[in-house]
DNA sequence: GATGAATGAGGATTCATTCAT
DNA sequence: TATGAATGAATCCTCATTCAT
């Protein structure tokens, strides 16, 4: 009405709306799963209206994909960077940074993403591919490279290379699934991973 | 009117209907997950009408529970019986029957059940408990008992007992999840499990 | 199989099956109303299978109509016969047999029929007509006739005829509805009807 | 394509939607009863989509309760207010305002509510209680109070108090039921109520 | 941009009715 | 006759998506 009314109507308009929505969606998916999450829940969590969600994400499925990629992207690079740039001896690296990393995975958003991929993956092959290339392949590659370096440095014996990198991650995987399913049943997941690392070291060391 | 109308409207009438429905439901859940499966899908697969499903299972949830328990019950007893009644040396048993068993799990219905538990478990705590008691606890118990026997026989050293039984199963778990998510990506899951058994044997043997 | 087997397979086959079914249906309708009653309930109450019901009553609606007519027919004739054949003075008849009859109506199956007619009547005009002709018209006619007789005998004054017979029944009606709706709220329905009769007598008497 | 498509897909947007829906529901329930009314009918009558009904009323039952309370609340207060604030002599009041009120009840929405309570009451005890407290108890209380006042003023004799207030309403009740069931059968319901009032006056007057 | 009322396509569940046995 | 398994049409209710404001 008035000429002077210079306050923009929607001053809270944020640039990071998409991110906020994705975060809210992630929280909702984590809690109830994809199918059981209503767009309304997401909007409420994000503090916006249902309709606005659709301004940024055309469909619920779009939102789902964004969420998965989002979480993945925000986590993986730094992690793998760590592995690649370490100066520690192989043994110290395994017992130190790698173990620490693995220990925190089962309780992290990555576990949620795994759960979502297990549930919804079959309906989203592109998402699975994305995840494989950006997380799994890179992670396994990093471990393989690490073992190779250990061999080159003489810390590991030659046959070390025949061990699949998945073996490093198996207890982490089991711990993750355990927590997803049996949240309340006790299990010393840290010790599980430690034992595995020790076993592997015993096998790999020259 | 038509030359041959050979389709009787009322097909057959059996008491294995419940099992047929459960089987159809298992197949449907395996393919699309619980939430995305329509009762109609199940009925169609079972070759019956939607309504008949409800004669045997009061709700979709009932059907779900029946399916899970069904698969579990039909599998577990024999398997664990095997473990308990073996006469082989510990080493031979690990490399033989146990490894064989583990190798076939990731491709078996048990993997599907795991998928369902991961997706729907949080909404069905009683099912999780059932699964824990009837499968997990018993399986872990069997392994623990097996290790104990190995120690008693002098095949394993005393410290063997400190290894959590989960360690035996970790690669099996990883293989299972791998297949559930990355069905088409290659992974020599058998070798993974073999390596783990060898590593464990190397650690456990007196 | 054996030649001697002279026992008929269904020896309990009764001639009064239709009646039994109607009784069961009446009980079920009384308890849950027409819409909420399942044919299965009726069959169970009658101690027969669902299918057999359809041998005697083509549809649920048929059954409904049979039930209403049934109850009506079985009750009305004797009742009205009473009124018509009395030898008592008008006053004694009102205070005696008529009052007694009215007192027991609100708790009788007639009340249930009224309830059914109120609920389902609009969908069954023929039933309403049937009820009107066989119960209401006859009942009112009997009262009218009774009053006429009273006038002829000099027990009632001439103007007595201007009173509509419905007035005799109004408290009975109210009592019936009261019980149907407020089963548990106290109301001395007997006194209500007594007061009305006394009032009417005071008005009618010469 | 078409020459004129003038129907907007999204009609209007009001806050009187709840009332509109309740009105539509009332009409539908009045016509077909609660059980036989489809939410779709209600929506169609209200000119909205089925889903919108659920935005305002969580379940069909909620809608039902809202409808009943709605009708009741909108009517009762003024009516009972009338009774309480009158300055007329008891006799004039009975013959005037009270009679007028009673005469219009059998054709009013209140009759519909009665029908609904008779049909569905047993399944909705809370509704029955609500109705009892807000309509019946208050109505009867008002009549009782009115009689008391008449006695105090010397218009009625002492024994007047022994007459249950229900007696005033009995012909109204009968008229209501009569219309609900025998809509088309003639009955001078007004005269019925007038006669009752006259009879009562004859009894009550000092 | 933002809202949330409104839509409508399903999906779970019920139940009158049918029919093979 | 008698059974009850089987059918399928109907009905309540949910929720992703749209759009008037």
Overview of this protein structure:
The structure is a homotetramer of 206-residue chains. Chain A has 206 residues and is mainly α. Chain A has two domains: 15-57, Arc Repressor Mutant, subunit A; 68-204, Tetracycline Repressor, domain 2 (Orthogonal Bundle), CATH 1.10.357. Chain A is built from nine helices and no strands. Chain A is elongated and about 60 Å long. Chain A binds chain B through residues 33-36, 114-115, 117-123, 128, 131-132, 136, 163-164, 166-167, 169-171, 173-174, 177-178, 180-182, 185, 187-188, 191-192, 195-196, 199-200, 202-203, and chain B through 31-33, 35-36, 114-115, 117-123, 128, 131-132, 136, 163-164, 166-167, 169-171, 173-174, 177-178, 180-182, 185, 187-188, 191-192, 195-196, 199-200, 202-203. The structure holds a DNA duplex (21 and 21 nucleotides).
Layout: helices, strands, pairs:
Four copies of one chain form a homotetramer.
Chain A: H1 17-32, H2 39-46, H3 50-56, H4 60-85, H5 90-104, H6 109-120, H7 125-152, H8 166-181, H9 189-204
Chain B binds a DNA duplex (21 and 21 nucleotides) through residues 8-14, 17, 38-40, 48-52, 54-55, 58-60.
